[in-house]
């Protein structure tokens, strides 16, 4: 039950007139008996946003359970205490932000608080893609980095992503240590947190260095001509993409003008994620009109990248696994040595490909906080259209260097009179058909997710798609993987991983079917089995 003291205390320390006014309106409506307002207040004040390995992410609004200037100030102060306590005082910390509502305000608050703690903030002078900021960590020799972004979440959300000095996102125990410092800071009003405006703004120095690095990934003698379509999905990728494409010598894209400029309301899409149904329809339509070779989409903070191409039955977007396999195959053909890695929810084909080329392979937990830290990483990906295409510079998913790799590959194929579809056929003919698909259930009540996970743990299926499966509780961990909330089911030709999303109110399922033999019949058999697998998993989860 929320007390008046809680509401009054929060209101008194909130420096944002907009969230103060929103809180006053909610209180007035709740006092008048509005059930929706009462539920909103109860949720917003039920507890603080959890700071974890994804940092913070949540709905904008007043209260400790929302993203606002109070919560961000506490997070910044907790991070500052952690960095000082670990001997980083006096070192630079880069702070970047996207174009979402209040991102610039949250970033400026963070810079002031870090400066007040004796650190040296480098505040980006304008909204920039997340991978550019991540690149800046190593480029400037930073102790840490912060990006204010909710990536591809709905417009009412924002987030706070933290990197350490190795350029990768935080992992345990750093997340718990920072959370402990946030809890200490949160005991006092935020006006007691020291601040300073003694920080430096960075722009051209950072962007120019990133552009030069990204453009340099393409060999000087590689083909360049390719006709392509680009959408920034209302995000911040376009300006940097334009600079990289020009520096690398590729043709300008046909732009999806309705989605090319930053817009925090994402007016043309229900969810600004290329994976969501309908999100890239405008790009596909434009690609068909201009007879493009490929179409490329970034998500709003440009750390993810999606590829669409024409196939025998028309234009479609490649799955995250298809693009990951395409990029891995390209890297292996180019002789890129090192460890190839993907998350546990991604296609197992990458293991076979690496082995065939005599390269090491490893599987990680979901998230680039794990993939980016693989020693000697050559290429890493996860099925949620995230690809680490230049790990020595950005040990994180990077939708812009991935775009460059795609353009180089598409141009090379075009010069040979071949297509993306042709290359995927060649890969399947070599390694067999691996058909991967996602299945997700978005919920309004998070208890539905925990109940579904409990059901599959206590009563796991013994067969799926007509074949016996073995269940493994990923929460128990193993010699190779730390514990995580998930279940895996494996049969002779089927594989399913079920886990709650770490960033959205979703239960996510990752399905794989394999089939040997000639391509056409193998693909038909795999598709039929995948359809049955989807039906069986849906029934098992009961959502």
> Tell me, what is the CATH class of the largest domain?
Alpha Beta
Strands of the largest sheet, in order across it?
1-5-4-2-3-6
CATH-assigned fold name of the largest domain:
Alpha-D-Glucose-1,6-Bisphosphate, Chain A, domain 3
Specify Rg, calculated over alpha carbons.
24 Å
Number of domains: 3
Distance between the termini: 30 Å
Q: How much helicity do the residues have?
A: 25-40%
Largest sheet: 6 strands, mixed
Number of helices: 17
Q: Give the averaged pLDDT, no decimals.
A: 96
Structural class: alpha/beta
User: Judging from the principal axes of the Cα atoms, what is the shape?
Assistant: globular
CATH architecture of the largest domain: 3-Layer(aba) Sandwich
How many beta-strand runs? Answer: 22
CATH superfamily of the largest domain: Alpha-D-Glucose-1,6-Bisphosphate, subunit A, domain 3
Q: Beta fraction of the residues? A: 15-25%
Unreliable stretches (pLDDT < 50, length at least 5) are: none
Give an overview of the whole structure.
The protein is of the alpha/beta class and 543 residues long. It folds into 3 domains: 4-202, Alpha-D-Glucose-1,6-Bisphosphate, Chain A, domain 3 (3-Layer(aba) Sandwich), CATH 3.40.120.10; 224-430, Alpha-D-Glucose-1,6-Bisphosphate, subunit A, domain 3 (Alpha-D-Glucose-1,6-Bisphosphate, Chain A, domain 3), CATH 3.40.120.10; 432-541, 2-Layer Sandwich (TATA-Binding Protein). It contains 17 helices and 22 strands. Strands 1-5-4-2-3-6 form a 6-stranded mixed sheet, with helices on both faces. Strands 8-7-9-10-11 form a 5-stranded mixed sheet. A hairpin with a 3-residue loop joins strand 20 and strand 21 (494-500). The chain is globular. The protein starts with a helix and ends with a helix. The model has no long low-confidence stretch (mean pLDDT 96).
